[in-house]
Amino acid sequence: MAVLAQSPPPSEFGPSLDIGIVLYPGFQPLDVIGPSDIMLLLSASVNMTISFIWKEAGPVWARSPDTQLPIQAPSFMATHSFADAPPLDILLIPGGGGSRYLSAINDTAIEDFARERYPSLKYLLSVCTGSAFLAKAGLLDGRKATTNKAAWSFPTEFGNNVTWVPTARWVVDGNVWSSSGVSAGIDMTYAFLSTILGSQLIGSVVNTLEYAPHVNKDWDPYSVVHKVPGADTSRSLGECVGPAGYEFSCSG
């Protein structure tokens, strides 16, 4: 069997790039699968680990306990619990219907874990309503952030002095990245990994996935579709999607 020629990540990360992705009952599958699929393919070239984390190791269903969806949901396998999760460079927290459920029952396990780990992280990422966990943990206080445009009113009720950006596809504030809803997590992950590892390598990965990322972080057409307060209705809904692996540009 061929041995993959992996390269070490940039020096700020040490010998491997150690990534954690939080799971919980009712996570949105694409919030997890999209970013982790890019990371999976990238691991052929860059030395990395990916840990999936919940209260306990084992299967975690993407169906929220309070959902009325009639079908059984897919599950992901949590490799670690919050208690035994390894040291991490990057932590990603997805959104999903379960974020509302956990908030309703005042379950703060994810907020507690994020708050505990943040000082040792290089980067903290949220996808979709995963930003609600960061806001409730106080990790967005004094920062800019964005979230799912279809569920705008839920995450934006949390946090102190958070500047929620209604038109953004994703927002970068220091070492905290937050994306809009669901598929925006793929766009943010593309941009994030391009920033830390280089666009040529990540461009090759998204070409393999046959995905054309939305590359303008400041413009999310779904802010108009979902009538988010403060959305820029003068922009074109078709702007800024480009062919993967090409030189990207977008004019306003």
From TrEMBL:
It comes from the Eukaryota. InterPro entries: Class_I_gatase-like, DJ-1/PfpI, INH-QAR. CDD domains: GATase1_PfpI_2 (cd03139). Gene3D superfamilies: 3.40.50.880. Residues 75-193 form the DJ-1/PfpI domain. It holds the Pfam family DJ-1_PfpI. This is ThiJ/PfpI family protein. It comes from Pyricularia oryzae (strain Y34).
